[in-house]
Amino acid sequence: METIIYKADVSGVRIDKWLTGQIDSWSRSYVQQLIGNGHIRVNEQEIKSNYKLQSGDEIAVSEPEAEELDAEAEEMNLDIRYEDEDLLVVNKPRGMVVHPAPGHVSGTLVNGLMAHCTDLSGINGVMRPGIVHRIDKDTSGLLVVAKNDSAHESLVEQMKAKTTKRRYEAIVVGEINHDKGTIDAPIGRDPEDRQKMTVTEKNARNAVTHFQVIDRFPNYTHVMLELETGRTHQIRVHFKYIGYPIVGDPKYGPRKRHVFPIEGQALHAGMLGFIHPRSGEELIVEAKPPEDFNACLEELHRMKH
């Protein structure tokens, strides 16, 4: 059983609420269950779920080994943008976890996919059938899902070779002066907080994000982004690193937040392009940002005028 240590950076917030915000795949009920079973301690003391954190509290989380979970099919109204015998491209809503994990065994994209089609590739095992790549729980947008192992292998190879096209839109805090640029900075696990990633030279992998400004507002910028690599939390980490964190980002955003009509980060995966594994032709799928993202832009336009 691995123990992970966190340092509280807030005061007066319930520990179950705070930990749920730190770990995307955990539900509040799962955190409460861990606390009840003594797997979460604060300053080496057992606590209750309603314990209110003090800044600087040391939180030790010892998560028990995950049992093999049986992901079950759940009927969902999925937004499928493309589908054939080999693969499908789905537009994931913000707030949906991609695959089941301890504390989050239902309501995920995988649960919905299993009800939608029975033929999903088995390369990633029973918990992640068909999943070629992920986007974060609070990021909306396009994901490609493989229906058989040969399609899965082809898509993974394309991502390794950096031939896939992945375009995002984001709203960031601060006015970016350059019309376009490239962030080339390696990303690794944050030694201060194992649930975060950071720009570091230690145990890091290269990460490259290209960006182009779409529009500027007082203290905010609307940007288009293209990923050359696909590291965990890459866009969110890179834009925090250059001083322009993403609006609404609970993990990497500024502590003092403007209240926008959005839950989670204003980040949307709007375009996905790759070579179809069977036909060899280029397939490009697009999805416009969701209503909450557009509501943020509308508010910024009102601020501008």
Notable characteristics:
Pseudouridine synthase, rRNA pseudouridine synthase activity, isomerase, four-stranded antiparallel sheet, 19% helix, PsdUridine_synth_RsuA/RluA, 15 strands, 3 domains, single chain, S4_RNA-bd_sf, Structural Genomics Hypothetical 15.5 Kd Protein In mrcA-pckA Intergenic Region, Chain A, 305 residues
Give structural notes.
This protein has about 300 residues and is an alpha+beta fold. It folds into three domains: about 5-60, RNA-binding S4 domain (Structural Genomics Hypothetical 15.5 Kd Protein In mrcA-pckA Intergenic Region, Chain A); about 70-160, Pseudouridine synthase (2-Layer Sandwich); about 165-270 and about 290-305, Pseudouridine synthase, CATH 3.30.2350.10. It is built from six helices and 15 strands. The strands form three sheets. Strands 5, 6, 7, 8, 9, 12, 13, 14 and 15 form a nine-stranded mixed sheet that branches. A four-stranded antiparallel sheet has the order 1-4-2-3. A two-stranded antiparallel sheet has the order 10-11. Strand 5 and strand 6 form a beta hairpin.
Helices and strands in order, then pairings?
Elements: E1 3-7, H1 15-22, H2 28-36, E2 40-42, E3 45-46, E4 58-62, E5 80-83, E6 87-92, H3 109-116, E7 140-146, H4 149-160, E8 165-173, E9 180-184, E10 187-190, E11 193-199, E12 208-217, E13 220-227, H5 234-241, E14 267-275, E15 282-286, H6 291-304
Parallel strand pairs: 7-14
Antiparallel strand pairs: 1-4, 2-3, 2-4, 5-6, 6-7, 8-13, 8-14, 9-12, 10-11, 12-13, 14-15
Helix pairs in contact: 1-2
